[in-house]
User: Which sequence fits this backbone?
């Protein structure tokens, strides 16, 4: 994995914490406002996951679909998305930055060219949301050539062969789905994840990070207690950023909520051990 992910997870493991990873869409609600959002999130984040807006985001629920559509309407292109990443990197040299994209954006630019541009912008990892591990080899190879960690989704009930492939191809972290379906804060996170995380750990997968449906500190704490190395919260973050823009939520309240999510990653006893075992030193 890249130096930033390796150092991040190692430091968190030593302190008994998991990673809090907020997600937002690049360019939402417009590129200028997004700069402030990124700084706000970075202040309370152990890492960031950023979505490149796309016209047909099949893995996104309505909250993120709407945010992506607004970002596109405001003129956010792939180039402007990379510019936002580069600006964030200049201000936060040690923060792991992950990118979530769809295959069309990668292929249209040229696979190698896309990963090279991502690396130049300071991106540490790329997750191509609509590319399963069965089709991931060329994307993973191009990512590694550029010094980027390829991230893959571990869906619920994936067979052993798929887990082996995800562990072999993936780096940085493993995006573990808490449930099937699309992203959204409307449903609670799945709770039967401990065995799933242990199965990934046995195969030497990159640190498991839970996503889909993580919307409150209780779900964060539950994920860490189950053995996750971290959690990603997307729809809940974007909902609050929208409220912030509309004046329905104050900046201090937003900061307090982000802090509560991060504080909930503090594990007790040996609860986080399965996630720690995945950290590649």
Assistant:
């Amino acid at each position: 994995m890249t130096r930033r992910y390796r150092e991040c997870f190692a430091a968190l493991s030593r302190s008994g914490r998991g990673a809090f990873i907020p997600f937002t869409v690049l360019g939402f609600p417009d590129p200028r406002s997004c700069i402030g959002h990124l700084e706000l999130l970075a202040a309370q984040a152990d890492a960031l996951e950023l979505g490149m807006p796309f016209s047909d985001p099949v893995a996104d629920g309505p909250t993120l679909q709407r945010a992506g559509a607004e970002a596109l309407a405001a003129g956010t292109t792939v180039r402007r998305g990379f510019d936002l990443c580069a600006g964030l990197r200049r201000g936060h040299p040690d923060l792991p930055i992950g990118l979530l994209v769809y295959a069309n954006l990668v292929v249209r630019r040229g696979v190698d060219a896309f990963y090279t541009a991502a690396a130049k912008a300071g991106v540490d990892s790329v997750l191509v949301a609509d590319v399963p591990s069965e089709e991931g080899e060329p994307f993973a190879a191009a990512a590694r050539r550029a010094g980027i960690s390829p991230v893959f989704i571990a869906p619920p009930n994936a067979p052993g062969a798929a887990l082996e492939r995800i562990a072999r191809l993936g780096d940085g972290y493993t995006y573990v789905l808490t449930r099937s379906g699309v992203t959204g804060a409307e449903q609670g996170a799945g709770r039967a994840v401990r065995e799933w995380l242990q199965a990934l750990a046995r195969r030497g997968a990159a640190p498991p990070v839970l996503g889909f449906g993580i919307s409150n500190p209780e779900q964060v704490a539950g994920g860490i207690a189950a053995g996750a190395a971290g959690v990603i919260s997307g729809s809940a973050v974007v909902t609050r950023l929208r409220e912030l823009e509309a004046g329905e939520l104050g900046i201090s309240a937003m900061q307090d909520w982000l802090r509560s999510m991060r504080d909930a990653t503090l594990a007790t006893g040996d609860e986080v051990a399965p996630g720690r075992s995945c950290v590649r030193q």
Remarks:
- The chain has 13 helices and nine strands.
- The chain has one domain: 3-276.
- The longest strand covers residues 19-25.
